[in-house]
Amino acid sequence: MKRVRFGVRVVALAAVVLVGVGACALDPSADVTGAAAPAPVAETERASGASAPPTPARTTGSPSAAPSRTATPKPSRTTSPAAPAKPSPSGFTGCPQGEHQRAVETYLARLGGFGKVTVDGKQSAADCAAIKKFQRRYGISPAAGRAGATTYDVAQRLAGTEVSRCRAGKGLTFCVDLTRQTVWAMRGGNVVMGPTVTRTGMAGYATPAGSYSVGGRNLKEWSNPYEVWLPYWQQFNGGIGFHETTTYLHEKSIGSHGCVNLLHADAVRLWELGSIGTRVVVFGRRPGT
């Protein structure tokens, strides 16, 4: 008779009852602690090969061969250094220049608030600092000052947002432009929170346009269908609401299940402004939905 070497492991499932009205969530596999998950690196913002893992060096000869006792090791001082990064046309090498340099300079100059930029398509120390500041503000990773595709996309959307298109009332109104994927707040015709980036419902879960009002708020809402925490939750249409995202906001291959996802600082600011009854105006249509 064969001896049984391994026992059968029985895993007991603990039933946890959590009550929540949030019907949407960004990522069902996200950490349910409520803490924001680490933001993955945006491939489109990398300089070529800049963030690639190092390739293991190949060894020559047999790996099992014993080293010669008489050979004197030579220092590796004669090894040729890696070729320096190609400088920008202006000669500035402080940070890499991206393929959208001039366009990003144009949008940042229009937006203002990020420092002096020169619209000439050439990277400079001032341009680099301004682009880095912009990237940090809107959660673009890595914030290396390179004017890549994601930086270009975000800057274009923000610079193209027309706050007057939101039919805000006299009181506080949260505005959502689905077409440009931006959010802002107005009161009495004045902007009290400037446009920022968002990501709304993906294909099959498109966030519906219309006029609504905030009907429920919770600092940390639990979504029953998707089993994920929704920080700074403000519900305005059934199971749809504003909340902080727990994944990289600029990953366009995914989206919410109808909710309006926000960066941490923006979710906090909207929470501070809002209350039960705050008007919400959603207009436009997210591309691809």
From TrEMBL:
<dbReference type="Pfam" id="PF01471">
    <property type="entry name" value="PG_binding_1"/>
</dbReference>
<dbReference type="Pfam" id="PF03734">
    <property type="entry name" value="YkuD"/>
</dbReference>
<dbReference type="InterPro" id="IPR038063">
    <property type="entry name" value="Transpep_catalytic_dom"/>
</dbReference>
<dbReference type="InterPro" id="IPR036366">
    <property type="entry name" value="PGBDSf"/>
</dbReference>
<dbReference type="GO" id="GO:0008360">
    <property type="term" value="P:regulation of cell shape"/>
</dbReference>
<dbReference type="InterPro" id="IPR005490">
    <property type="entry name" value="LD_TPept_cat_dom"/>
</dbReference>
<keyword id="KW-0808">Transferase</keyword>
<dbReference type="GO" id="GO:0071555">
    <property type="term" value="P:cell wall organization"/>
</dbReference>
<feature type="signal peptide">
    <location>
        <begin position="1"/>
        <end position="25"/>
    </location>
</feature>
<feature type="domain" description="L,D-TPase catalytic">
    <location>
        <begin position="172"/>
        <end position="283"/>
    </location>
</feature>
<keyword id="KW-0732">Signal</keyword>
<feature type="compositionally biased region" description="Low complexity">
    <location>
        <begin position="67"/>
        <end position="90"/>
    </location>
</feature>
<protein>
    <submittedName>
        <fullName>Putative peptidoglycan binding domain-containing protein</fullName>
    </submittedName>
</protein>
<comment type="pathway">
    <text>Cell wall biogenesis; peptidoglycan biosynthesis.</text>
</comment>
<feature type="active site" description="Proton donor/acceptor">
    <location>
        <position position="243"/>
    </location>
</feature>
<dbReference type="GO" id="GO:0005576">
    <property type="term" value="C:extracellular region"/>
</dbReference>
<dbReference type="InterPro" id="IPR050979">
    <property type="entry name" value="LD-transpeptidase"/>
</dbReference>
<dbReference type="GO" id="GO:0018104">
    <property type="term" value="P:peptidoglycan-protein cross-linking"/>
</dbReference>
<keyword id="KW-0573">Peptidoglycan synthesis</keyword>
<dbReference type="InterPro" id="IPR036365">
    <property type="entry name" value="PGBD-like_sf"/>
</dbReference>
<feature type="active site" description="Nucleophile">
    <location>
        <position position="259"/>
    </location>
</feature>
<keyword id="KW-0961">Cell wall biogenesis/degradation</keyword>
<dbReference type="GO" id="GO:0071972">
    <property type="term" value="F:peptidoglycan L,D-transpeptidase activity"/>
</dbReference>
<keyword id="KW-0133">Cell shape</keyword>
<dbReference type="GO" id="GO:0016740">
    <property type="term" value="F:transferase activity"/>
</dbReference>
<feature type="region of interest" description="Disordered">
    <location>
        <begin position="37"/>
        <end position="99"/>
    </location>
</feature>
<dbReference type="InterPro" id="IPR002477">
    <property type="entry name" value="Peptidoglycan-bd-like"/>
</dbReference>
